Please model this.
Amino acid sequence: MLELKNIHWKTPDGEEILKGVDLNVPEGRLTVITGPNGGGKTSLAKVIAGLYEISEGSIIYNGEDIMLSSSPSVSRAYRSAIFWSFPAKKSFLRTSCAACFPPLVCVRRNILIVK
Model:
C-alpha cells in the first residue's frame, strides 16, 4: 500500500534529518513509528503527510509514485489514507505515597486521581 524508498529530508538551513529512510506499510495494517526525542519521527510523519518536500527518494502509494503523479485522484486517495496523531500532553501530579519516595511521580496515585 505505502512504501517509502531512500527518503531524504533537510531543514531549510541544510541540516539532513532523514537519511535514506525505507518503510513498507502493508495494506490494512496499522503502523506506529516510535523512537527517541529528536529521532526524526515528526519529520517523517510530515514528509508522509506531504507537509515537507523530500530532497531525494520516492513515496509509492498503491504502486504509483505520488511524487511524480499529477493525478488528483491518486493524491486524494493517498491523503485520505494518512492519519497523524499527536501525543497528548498531560502532567502527572508530583506526589508521594507510602509506596514511593518523595518527590517521585506516583503512577498508582495518578491513575486513581484520573479515575
Remarks:
- The helical segments are 41-48, 72-81, 107-114.
